[in-house]
TrEMBL record:
Binding site for substrate: 50, 212
Ranges in a coiled coil: none
Keyword ATP-binding set for record: yes
Gene field: thiM
Molecular function terms, GO-annotated: ATP binding; hydroxyethylthiazole kinase activity; magnesium ion binding
Record-level GO BP terms: thiamine biosynthetic process; thiamine diphosphate biosynthetic process
InterPro entries: Hyethyz_kinase, Ribokinase-like
Protein name: Hydroxyethylthiazole kinase
Lineage start: Archaea, Methanobacteriati, Methanobacteriota, Methanomada group, Methanobacteria
Keywords: ATP-binding, Kinase, Magnesium, Metal-binding, Nucleotide-binding, Thiamine biosynthesis, Transferase
EC id: 2.7.1.50
């Protein structure tokens, strides 16, 4: 288990390594937020590559440093592409990040998520807390879970100070069972590799009011874990995203602007990520 001091001490080196690596981040993702994901990857220091035709995927994964699979807007051909990429990624020891958008809502999303989790090594799963609880239920770690209205979190699931410990325990158990790293997002985020559990209390309540802050986060988790390890790479990604959200909110308030400008500022401040701010302005605890 790693302690808080070491995590903070490593941030500057990890962020430098992520930028030096400039990870080729292969994303199979939804068409709603695909452009934001590509820009977020560029802003954190990765190199995005959005490819999904089956014919080229083995070649793409062969050169990729990481594969990000987002199930936000599935089609039959896209599901086939996800499996081809996942298989090749495991053969080439390329890490896979899964964003299980809307799992729990439809059978197709449940089947696709569990097929990927059960048949391939997944380095990290990043979802909102309702999605993570849906996976816990499908995996037999949780008896009952709320159903999301769509791709957004169910209000009853939101991680608060009061339910933090229970959620942390559940997600740790799930990460350990699935042998992966899990980042569950919300007002407070929980990150665990099944051993160390970290809570992150940063970000802004305007973040869920734009579509894609979660998809962007999953994409940059990809670039960051390719240049670091899953736990510490995911920590850099969530801190960079949340602190960018805080700065973007301050900016729109100062200028009497709204969520459209917030979305643009979020990318601006991801680009402006500084190790010193990640260390000094982060609000993390080891649970
Ligand atoms: N109320 C909030 N306060 C502070 N930060 C938040 C809040 N809600 C979400 N966030 C942050 O927003 C980012 C995205 O998390 P969220 O849980 O909204 O993802 P999501 O539901 O998968 O989003 P999407 O599917 O629209 O891309 C994370 O960095 C998270 O910490
Ligand atoms: C709104 C929406 N619908 C399918 S994917 C997506 C992006 C947020 O997950
Ligand atoms: Mg999402």
């Amino acid at each position: 288990m790693i302690n808080k001091e070491t995590l903070l001490d490593n941030i500057e080196k990890n962020l430098n390594d992520i930028r030096d690596k400039n990870a080729l981040t292969h994303c199979i993702t939804n068409s709603v937020t695909i452009n934001d994901c590509a820009n977020a990857v560029l802003a954190i220091g990765g190199s995005p590559f959005m490819a999904e035709d089956a014919e080229e995927l083995e070649e793409v994964v062969t050169i990729a440093d990481v594969v990000v699979i987002n199930i936000g807007k599935l089609s039959k051909s896209q599901i086939e592409s996800m499996k081809i990429s996942a298989k090749k990624a495991n053969e080439t020891s390329t890490p896979i990040v899964l964003d299980p958008v809307g799992v729990g809502v439809t059978n197709l999303r449940n089947r696709t998520t569990m097929d990927l989790i059960e048949n391939y090594d997944i380095a990290a799963i990043r979802g909102n807390i309702t999605e993570i609880k849906a996976i816990a239920k499908l995996s037999g770690v949780l008896d009952e879970s709320n159903t999301a209205k769509g791709v957004d979190v169910n209000a009853d699931d939101i991680i608060t100070e009061e339910n933090l410990k229970d959620n942390a325990y559940l997600i740790k158990e799930l990460a350990s069972r699935l042998n992966t790293t899990i980042l569950a997002s919300g007002p407070i985020d929980i990150l665990t590799d099944g051993e160390t559990v970290i809570s992150i209390d940063n970000g802004d309540d305007m973040m869920p009011l734009i579509t894609g802050s979660g998809c962007m986060l999953s994409s940059i988790v990809g670039s960051c874990i390719a240049g670091s390890n899953p736990l510490e790479g995911s920590l850099i990604a969530i801190l960079a995203m949340n602190l960018a959200g805080e700065k973007a909110r301050a900016k729109v308030d100062e200028r009497d602007e709204g969520t459209g400008s917030f979305r643009a500022y979020l990318i601006d401040y991801l680009y402006r990520t500084e190790a010193e701010r990640l260390v000094n302005e982060s609000n993390i605890e080891i649970l």
